[in-house]
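Lay summary. Proteins are chains of building blocks that fold into shapes, and those shapes determine what they do. In this project we predict the shape from the chain. Here is one chain we studied, written as its sequence of building blocks.
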Amino acid sequence: MEISVSEARCVALAAQGFNALRRHGRIGAGQVRRAIDRPGLLQIDSKTRVT
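And here is the predicted shape, written in a compact code that computers can read:
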């Protein structure tokens, strides 16, 4: 079985709980907390990645 890179990315994000619908509007502290709690970590990159 083969899957594309895009499909693999979707599977990985879903496994981490990031497959919820996007919400519009302001993001509150509760939403940020839940986003951190799902994978159990917070990574802050010190450099901006430009692609």
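What the prediction tells us: Residues 4 and 10 are 10 Å apart (CA to CA).
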